[in-house]
Amino acid sequence: MLIHISVMAACARAFGITVRSISYGVGPTLLALGKVQVKLLPLAGNVVLKDTREETLYDDDPCLDAYNFQPLWKQVLLPLSGVGVLLALSLGIMGASGWERFVAAFGQIVHGALAPLSTAQELLGDGETFARTHGFALVFALFSLKLCAFNLLPFAGLNGGQALLAIMRGGKPYAAWEEAAVKWLLLPGLTILLAWVAAFGWHGWKIMAA
User: Fold this and answer.
1) How much is the CA Rg of the chain, to the nearest whole Å?
2) How many CB atoms lie within 10 A of CB 44?
3) Rounded mean pLDDT of the chain?
4) How many CB atoms lie within 10 A of CB 118?
5) Could you tell me which of 131, 147, 141 has the C-alpha nearest to residue 44?
6) Using CB atoms within 10 A of its CB, is residue 1 exposed (0-12), middle (13-18) or buried (19+)?
7) What is the pTM of this model?
8) How many angstroms separate the CA atoms of 165 and 160, rounded?
9) Residue 179: how many CA atoms within 13 Å on its side-chain side?
10) Theoretical Cys-Cys bridge with 5: which of 45, 57, 66, 172, CB 3.0 to 4.6 Å?
11) Among the ranges given (11-20, 49-58, 167-176), the one the predictor scored with the smallest mean pLDDT
12) What are phi and psi of 50, to 5 degrees?
């Protein structure tokens, strides 16, 4: 999360896009330093950019530093930048086997979400065994590869969904259909996330009860 969010913020600055805020984690704020906020739960994070779809700007603002007024390649590359760096780092640690695990993760995420009390439990058990038998670097790489795959799913709220919407807009600042598309693309991603939260909760419960 630290790498992912930091790379996206740095990429936005390099592209000349105004960064409104950077949040590491979710929940109550523990520490605030300028635009940077550190939250209680280190489970996610976000980078809020200047965007005319999210805020009202002055009429004389040319919006040259707004995300949705950037060229298409910037609108696509920015949400993928954090995932790309984390993916490259993880593949560098794991080598060729890392790519196979990354590709397999897409199917595992979906199949596990469809069966959180069976298939997901088997996958979590495999992950637990891997964590017990390998060092920190490999465990970090494996977990990061799975998170990269999740973030690249084409659903709203995820990096893959953001890039997909930018492509669908054709680089335009906004589209009349986008709000409705976001609502439809948000549902499957949220369903998968909640299914995996339930799977993790059940897995943890079984461990504590054992």
Assistant:
1) 19
2) 18
3) 92
4) 12
5) 147
6) middle
7) 0.88
8) 9
9) 3
10) 45
11) 49-58
12) -65, 125
Q: How far apart are CA 74 and CA 126, in angstroms?
A: 38
Question: What single string gives the DSSP state of each residue in the chain?
Answer: -HHHHHHHHHHHHHTTPPEEEEEEEEEEEEEEETTEEEEEEEEEEEEEE--TTTS---TT---TT-GGGS-HHHHHHHHHHHHHHHHHHHHHHHTHHHHHHHHHHHHHHHHHHH-TTTHHHHHHHHHHHHHHHS-HHHHHHHHHHHHHHHHTSSSTTSHHHHHHHHHHHTT-S--TTHHHHHHHHHHHHHHHHHHHHHHHHHHHHHHHH-
What mean pLDDT comes out for the span 117-136?
95
Distance CA 138, CA 133 (A): 10
Token pair 């017990």: residue: 132
Q: Are 1 and 45 in contact (CB under 8 A)?
A: yes
| pLDDT classification of 116: cutoffs 50, 70, 90 | very high
State phi, psi for 39 to the nearest 5 degrees: -95, 170
